[in-house]
Amino acid sequence: MAVRRDNIELVWSISELSSLFGKRTNIDGFLQDVVDRIAEHMESDVCSVYLLDESTQRLVLRASRGLDPDAVGRVHLGLGEGITGTAVKELRPIREAHASRNPRYKFIPNTREEEYQSFLAVPIRHGLNRIGALVVQHRRPDQFTRHDTRALQTIAGQLAATLENVEMLMELHGHSSGGEIPAADRSESIRCQVASEGIAVGRIVHLRARDLLDEQSSSDHEDQETAFRAALERTDAQLEAIHRDLDERISDLANLIFSSHLLMLRDEEFSGEMLRLIQAGATAHGSIRQVVGRYADLLAASSNPRTREKTHDIRDLGQRLVRNLRGGEEEHGDLRERIVIAHEMYPSDLVRLAAQHAEGLILTGAGNTAHLTILARSLEIPSVLLRARREDELPEGELVAVDAYEGIIHRNPHQTLLDQFRTTQEARRTDRPKHAPSAAPTADGVAIELLANVNILHDVDLAVRAGAMGIGLYRSEFPFLVRNDFPSEAEQYRIYRRIVERVEGGPVVLRTLDIGGDKLFGDPEYQESNPFLGLRGIRFSLAHPELFDDQLRAMLRAGADRDLRVLFPMVASLDEFFHARERIRAVSADLADEGLEHHPNPKLGVMIELPSAVECCEEFASEADFLSIGSNDLVMYLLAVDRSNEQVERLYNPYHPAVLRALSRVIEAARRHGTGVSMCGEIGSSPLMIRFLIGCGLRSISADPARLSRIREEICTVTEAESRAFSARLLRQPSVGAVQHLIAESGL
Ligand code: PEP
Ligand code: MG
């Protein structure tokens, strides 16, 4: 390898260029000077600069030394697309000895890029503001070093401020800063927050935008009885079809909803009463409204919360009948090629949308819970949150493309964008490698157990595909939330058994009901003024022993022949753990008396997700069979920050020294007592956190199945020794700023 000049010299040279830039306004000339100097200095075959086009959120190749000059302005990359797109999206440098072996490598035709092996991409950013990327490439493999990464990062840092000003100037002067997308073709885009990743294209449908029951009927002149019978038949056929075609992946939850609709529809008292009213002279619409209204009032007045909940179902069914009476666009209740926009919704609504094949979802209300987004991910419905907007800004029927990777809604997208979306959608669909269940080894051979978080049956299939070694967390509250009700022991047994049976081996951790907080029933009976500090998780179960026993019985029976482990959520004290343990022992004894097959002695675990549990982690590590760190809640409770509150969400920072120290303390306590500990919160999917956690001694991660392969890749790149040094340094930092500074400085 040729000896290169000192990188410091290069940094000076670029800084000089940047200062000179103010005197001229030709950005392309400036960028060309920059890439020429870098390429010469680093003796790279290629040096390119990409800039992010704000309106399309795509990276455009703006200058290159080495790539085909015709590619400049023509080559576009999405955030997360290719190695360069990934570096910008994740705001981290990526260095590859053999670029084409990186799974994210994207071959760009007609650039002659295939000739180059070594690849180094560094994001250009100003704070967290993404500006673009600097990329160097070389024909020979393994050409770039860590020092080159640092040097390129420093240069990128210098360029950032200059480029940001340039962008602003260009905008002021009305120039396009992007590549070759003609201005007329640009779709208007709206920024939003990602809830469930994916891409969706379709026309807007407003959920419950209007109550059809209360509207005037326009078809009163037709023969009312014939029209009604036809609507009834159509509704019956639709519900049958939904039932029949229910995707296996959601059948466990959707069955709970649609079977009750069919039952009601066929009930003589319900549809028969409507017919009688029509025969007595009422219009079809009027009779539906009257009967549905009467039923809804009756149900709403019930003292039984389970009965009250059915009000929702009755009105839903009434809407469907009226829609079918009118005929027209939504005749089949099929939401293919539709993006649903709703203010707030129940988990059951979401399952309904999945059953009707909705392409995507835009939520506008502030009250949408974290669990709704978790469920959307399991159902694979691309979803975004548009908190500050009113939904009528997106009118019914408008075509939108929702990029729920980047958090952008493109209104009236042009054909090129639609084509790109469809290609990405297709690629993601087919891009699911199958792994055998296995641990992920670090680069120096330390095995990290990979488990899956499972919310619905479909997740188990994804988990098996992703090579998960078992289930690290089954959130058992989903059937409860979807039904807004307590399923019986028998129903729970059926659901758990199907989950357990699909796992090919390894541990199955079933968590008892974690209701409350942001996982509320829609019923006023369960409303609390401060639900996060209320009757949540294990508190709820201990306060309702009959419900708790039903669930424990169902779990012990379902896991009879498996490595069953039962996990208790939101445990604040050892006393609660003892109490829960007593109940499970009593339930096991009852099952034995009844001669029912069950697991007699599952391992019992505690979720560490409250500050009090961290304080008592030594005792928990000594008394429980295993610990599971729920960082989603732990960060919230440690920092007193509600992630769904826009005013403070940026303070939700897992890199806060208090969080880092708590995590290290819990892992260390478990290690001392020889008790297993796993991370099942979302930070277990973050690359930097993985390094930190491994450095603290964590050897087990449980995460969404869709994230497992990325986690596996990340683990392969770290070594235990490096991680240990990294964690030790992070743990010494006194403030959030100091932690961030250290991370930025280490170039990770
Ligand atoms: C957590 O709090 O990190 C966790 C895994 O539990 P949930 O997200 O279900 O609250
Ligand atoms: Mg939790």
Radius of gyration: 29 Å
Class per helix and strand makeup: alpha/beta
Helix count equals 26
Provide the residue-averaged pLDDT.
83
Largest sheet: 9 strands, mixed
* CATH architecture annotation of the largest domain: Alpha-Beta Barrel
What is the CATH C-level name of the largest domain?
Alpha Beta
CATH topology of the largest domain: TIM Barrel
Low-confidence stretches: 1-5, 168-186
Bound molecules: phosphoenolpyruvate, magnesium ion
Q: What is the total tally of β strands?
A: 23
The portion of residues forming beta strands comes to 15-25%
By CATH, the superfamily of the largest domain comes out as Phosphoenolpyruvate-binding domains
The CA-CA distance between the termini, in Å, is 25 Å
Apparent shape: globular
Q: State the domain count.
A: 4
Helix content: 40-55%
Topology:
Blueprint lengths: L6 H15 L5 H16 L3 E8 L4 E8 L10 E3 L3 H8 L4 E3 L21 E9 L2 E10 L7 H27 L15 E4 L1 E4 L2 E8 L17 H22 L2 H18 L2 H12 L4 H17 L4 H22 L11 E5 L4 H9 L4 E4 L6 H9 L4 E3 L13 E5 L4 E4 L3 H16 L9 E2 L5 E8 L2 H9 L5 E5 L1 H7 L5 H14 L4 E5 L26 H6 L1 H14 L4 E6 L5 H20 L9 E6 L2 H5 L1 H7 L2 E4 L1 H9 L17 H17 L2 E4 L7 H10 L3 E4 L4 H9 L3 H12 L4 H11 L2
Parallel strand pairs: 9-10, 10-11, 11-12, 16-17, 16-23, 17-18, 18-19, 19-20, 20-21, 21-22
Antiparallel strand pairs: 1-2, 1-6, 2-3, 4-5, 5-6, 7-14, 8-12, 9-13, 13-14, 15-16
Helix pairs in contact: 1-2, 1-4, 5-6, 5-7, 5-9, 6-10, 6-13, 6-14, 7-8, 8-9, 10-14, 13-15, 15-17, 17-18, 20-22, 23-25
The site of phosphoenolpyruvate has 10 residues, from strand 17 and helix 21.
